[in-house]
Design brief:
9% of the residues lie in helices and 41% in strands. It has helices at residues 2-11, 72-79, and strands spanning 15-18, 21-23, 29-37, 44-50, 55-57, 64-65, 90-96, 102-108, 120-128, 134-146, 158-165, 183-184, 190-191, 197-201, 204-208. The protein has a single domain, classed as Immunoglobulin-like (Sandwich), CATH 2.60.40. It is globular, with a radius of gyration of 18 Å. By secondary structure, it is mostly beta strands. The protein has a six-stranded mixed β-sheet with strand order 2-11-10-4-8-7, with no helix packed on it. Strands 1, 3, 5, 6 and 9 form a five-stranded antiparallel β-sheet that branches. Strand 12 (183-184) and strand 13 (190-191) form a beta hairpin.
Length: 209
């Protein structure tokens, strides 16, 4: 039994994840959904993002964090305010990295661990300009997942996902596993429910008639 438990523990990882993206030809917007699977308590997250030519991340104000992974009770204690919001304690930074790409950082003013061990972490809306049909690689690298001691425990410093433009209609039906994922309109704004037309959920475009 001890050997089995050790084996399970050895398989647990601290890593970011990224959902593949599929859009129709001539699409002008897409969402990059980044998740986190973690065995240890993670307090802070940072990474760099490399996008294909013709694809650009929108400004910081358009980034949506999954607040289900934020310990709001701890936030209220840290802010000494029963009405505190996540932004009162957490800082989101987007900076220019030395290699010309963007560096994203998310960290609290005190040692508050993110909730859960798996699930979406944030969504970065992107714009597409004259991107031809085909498959493209999006790279998330220089990943740091900081624990309460301020040490990165990331098991992978780099992950990739695929952006597919065209190759079919790019409109995907939604399945039961995706039904509770956040919903966004084509402008990258989060909405409470899907309206008639096209919306984005779990990094995929969905058509509602």
């Amino acid at each position: 039994m001890v050997a089995m438990l050790c084996g399970v523990a050895a398989m647990a990882q601290n890593t970011l994840t990224a959902a593949d993206i599929k859009v129709e030809k001539d699409a002008t917007a897409a969402n990059l959904v980044i998740g986190m699977d973690n065995a240890d308590q993670i307090v802070a997250v940072s990474f760099r993002l490399a996008l294909p030519e013709g694809v650009a991340a929108k400004a910081k104000k358009y980034i949506t964090w999954n607040e289900d992974r934020i310990d709001m009770e701890a936030v209220k204690v840290a802010a000494d305010d029963p009405d505190a919001e996540s932004g009162d304690v957490y800082t989101v930074m987007v900076q220019n990295a030395a290699d010309g790409n963007k560096m994203y950082s998310f960290y609290p003013s005190s040692s508050i661990a993110l909730l859960g061990n798996t699930g979406d972490l944030l969504t970065i809306p992107m714009t597409l300009t004259d991107v031809a049909e085909g498959d493209y690689e999006i790279k998330i690298y220089a990943i740091s997942l900081g624990n309460k001691a301020g040490v990165s425990v990331a098991d992978a410093e780099e992950i990739t996902c695929k952006l597919t433009v065209g190759k079919g209609d790019g409109i995907n039906g939604i399945n039961a596993a995706d039904s509770k994922a956040p919903i966004y309109n084509v402008a990258g704004q989060r909405v409470s429910k899907a309206q008639k037309g096209i919306f984005i959920q779990n990094g995929k475009k969905v058509a509602v008639k």
